[in-house]
């Protein structure tokens, strides 16, 4: 005979992506929340502000690599019929340097920016139409982390851009799963241009996630502001402290929100009350840092092989051009 088990009857809000993630994350031990929760309108603005901070070297360094080597990157693709697809393109500001280099080489270019934000893509499309008449830009509004089936079938060789070290916000196994799914949508010989942040001295890494102006702290706490607003939770986000630390064994920066007091937080939309001890934290983000070897290994496990790479003088950031190998059945 089977024992009767009662399934928990959860409120409707727990079945939305946000509600389900918050329910799962805040009832887990240790508590955690997924980094995609950062990116509502305010979170995206705060992230834009982070990219301009003196301590946040990532964006500036990658842009420097493109300024220096965009022509060389395009030359290394070895074709005059290149098209570009960009995952998580946003407003595609850095990409302009690569688009311009491709137009110098082959006169015209098809470019497909993919992003979950329609408004960011519209801004990209308008700017490109104005400034780069030889680029045919077709924006695709889609969440590439869930669905890659909209991958455009452009003529010639496709190069997928996945820049900004976004791959570093996935757990290593998830990163390989995502890259393998991407490989599954490509033909042998198609290309991936991957931007990753390199392992470096701990002080530089920690400063990038602990800026003096407190923008990263606001970005981190914004997840709480969002839970408060969208799920009607009753608490003060200011009673959580932003904490970033370097986990050397896992090669990652971790971000946490640490409760400054013992408190109980009611989240009516989820029919949930969450208790925090003083000093207890919610793990909100991992940002993995790579070495040339660990990038090659991740790409190899995903069906790609590195063809060429570029870096800055200090070797702080890396841009890797990888080729999709033959499919193994
Ligand atoms: C989007 N991603 C690459 C950023 C990073 O550096 O991991 C997100 C971020 N988190 C804190 N600051 C920036």
Q: Care to describe what's here?
A:
The chain has helices at 17-26, 41-50, 57-76, 95-106, 118-131, 172-184, 202-208, 215-231, 292-301; strands at 82-87, 109-115, 135-137, 140-141, 157-162, 191-197, 240-247, 252-259, 263-267, 272-276, 281-288, 304-311, 317-324. It is an alpha/beta fold and 329 residues long. Strands 1, 2, 3, 4, 5, 6, 12 and 13 form an eight-stranded mixed β-sheet that branches. β7 and β8 form a beta hairpin. It starts with 16 loop residues before the first helix and ends in a 5-residue tail after the last strand. The model is unreliable at 1-7 (pLDDT under 50). N,N-dimethyl-L-histidine binds at residues 50, 58, 164-166, 168-169, 209, 216, 219, 285, 287.
Give me some keywords for this one.
alpha/beta; eight-stranded mixed sheet; three-stranded antiparallel sheet; 13 strands; 34% helix; globular; binds N,N-dimethyl-L-histidine
Category by helix and strand content: alpha/beta
User: What is the average of the pLDDT values?
Assistant: 94
Molecules bound to protein: N,N-dimethyl-L-histidine
Q: How helical, in percent, are the residues?
A: 25-40%
Task: Report the principal-axis shape.
Answer: globular
How many helices does DSSP assign? 9
Instruction: Please count the beta strands (DSSP E, at least 2 residues each).
Output: 13
Portion of residues in beta strands equals 15-25%
Radius of gyration equals 21 Å
The largest β sheet comes out as:
8 strands, mixed
User: End-to-end distance, in Å?
Assistant: 44 Å
Order of helical and strand elements: HHHEHEHEEEHEHHEEEEEHEE
Poorly predicted parts? 1-7
């Amino acid at each position: 005979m089977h024992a009767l088990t009662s399934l928990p009857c959860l409120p409707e809000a727990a079945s939305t992506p946000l509600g389900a993630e918050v329910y799962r994350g805040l009832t887990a031990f240790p508590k955690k929340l997924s980094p995609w929760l950062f990116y509502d309108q305010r979170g995206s603005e705060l992230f834009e502000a982070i990219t301009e901070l003196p301590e946040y070297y990532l964006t500036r360094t990658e842009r420097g690599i493109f300024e220096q080597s965009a022509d060389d990157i395009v030359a290394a693709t070895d074709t005059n019929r290149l098209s570009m697809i960009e995952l998580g393109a946003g407003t595609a500001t850095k990409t302009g340097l690569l688009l311009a280099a491709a137009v110098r080489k082959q006169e015209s270019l098809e470019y497909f920016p993919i992003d979950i934000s329609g408004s960011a893509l519209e801004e990209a499309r308008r700017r490109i139409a104005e400034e780069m008449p030889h680029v045919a830009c077709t924006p695709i509004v889609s969440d590439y982390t869930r669905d890659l089936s909209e991958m455009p079938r452009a003529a010639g060789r496709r190069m997928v851009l996945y820049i900004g070290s976004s791959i570093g916000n996935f757990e290593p196994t998830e990163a390989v799963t995502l890259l393998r799914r991407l490989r599954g949508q490509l033909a042998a010989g198609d290309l991936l241009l991957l931007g990753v942040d390199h392992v470096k001295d701990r002080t530089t890494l920690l400063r990038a996630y602990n800026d003096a102006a407190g923008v990263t702290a606001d970005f981190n706490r914004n997840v709480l502001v969002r839970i408060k607003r969208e799920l009607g939770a009753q608490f003060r986000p200011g009673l959580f402290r932003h904490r970033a630390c370097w986990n050397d064994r896992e090669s990652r920066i971790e971000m946490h929100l640490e409760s400054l007091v013992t408190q109980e937080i009611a989240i009516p939309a989820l029919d949930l009350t969450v208790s925090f001890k003083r000093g207890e934290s919610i793990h909100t983000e991992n940002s993995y840092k790579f070495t040339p070897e660990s990038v090659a290994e991740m790409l190899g496990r995903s069906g790609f092989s590195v063809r060429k790479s570029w870096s800055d003088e200090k070797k702080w950031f890396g841009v890797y051009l990888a080729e999709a190998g033959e499919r193994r059945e």
